[in-house]
Amino acid sequence: MEQRMTGRGRAGRPKPGREIDLYSTQEGTRAVGNPVRRAILAALREGDCTFEEIVALAGRAKSTVSVHLQDLAAAGVVGSRPDPADARKKVFFLVGDLIVSVSPEDRVTDDLAVYAGAYRAGSGDSNAFYRLAFRTIRVALMQEGVLLDPLLTHAGERIGEELYPAVADPETATFCANIARFWEEHRLGRIEVAGMEPPVLLVYDCFECADLPVTGKPACAFDSGILRALFSHHYGRPAAVAETQCYSMGFDHCRFEIVVEDKPAGDG
Question: What top-level branch of life does the organism fall under (predicted)?
């Protein structure tokens, strides 16, 4: 491994660059900068893979992939188990969690002063300073190509776990209305329920992203984590949250679609 410091991606042949992914493991945080290893881990974030599948996705020789898998396993980022279809082979899976990516290609060039200087004393909005701080930190990191989405998603899930009892209701319509009321009361934005099968939430004046630079990519990882935890509890099974529209994509709102998996929550 390159270094020791105490979700989901796209597979494929890696491009040259200086990108670095940070993974959280039981032994500590691991920095992965090698493009082949990053490609392998991107494949495993999509789902468990056999050795042959990883070779095809990484676009490298079997011997090269084998060495990288051994190093990733030794670092506690990757695990394996016997393939049920052929005990002579292994199925590999991700053990560590992706928490941060650093990508020079994703740097934004917006002037930080535009965001840091947006605060106006005496506005009457008690949350204005905290929105300012959150926004400024996000933009400062984006200027350096630091992508916090995985970490923000995990943090949002933790908050969603704590928030669920305050908005819980067996009726999905009432549950969504409770979420909307909580968002508005805490000035996180204004939620409109645009659909119920599946649930679709539109967020206006979004706390997380309304003032962020337009990058063409969704930016509400924190909100997505909260909603994932809330709806997973509500349905008693894992729920995925797809943000299909966002202020950072040039829209005047954020759109979240809830997709519920078939298996009960907690099943492996």
Answer: Archaea
Q: Is the pLDDT of residue 195 over 80?
A: yes
Q: Is the dihedral of CA 242, 243, 244, 249 positive or negative?
A: negative
Band of pLDDT at residue 4, cut at 50, 70 and 90: very low
Read off the pLDDT of each residue in 174-188 and give the average, rounded to a whole number: 95
The stretches of the chain forming alpha helices (DSSP H) are 35-46, 51-58, 62-74, 112-116, 128-143, 149-167, 172-185, 221-235
Predicted confidence band at 119 (pLDDT cuts at 50, 70, 90)? low
Q: Given a cut of 50, is residue 15 above it in pLDDT? A: no
Q: What's the pLDDT at 6?
A: 30
Q: Which residue has the tokens 């997380």?
A: 208
- Determine which helix (DSSP H) or strand (DSSP E) holds 248, and give its type and residue range: none
pLDDT surpassing 70 at residue 10:
no
Half-sphere exposure for 201 (CA within 13 Å, toward CB): 29
Task: For helices 149-167 and 221-235, give the axis angle rounded to 10 degrees.
Answer: 40
Peptide bond into 170 cis (omega under 30): no
Q: Please give the Cα distance from 235 to 180 (Å, whole number).
A: 18
Q: In 3D, which of 204, 115, 177, 150 has the Cα closest to residue 42?
A: 150
- Whether the Cβ atoms of residue 58 and residue 65 lie closer than 8 Å to each other: yes
Measured distance between the N- and C-terminal CA atoms of the chain, rounded to whole angstroms: 28
- Determine contact, residues 9/98, Cβ cutoff 8 Å: yes
What domains can you pick out in the chain, each with its CATH number? 3-99 (1.10.10.10), 106-147 (no CATH), 152-268 (3.30.1380.20)
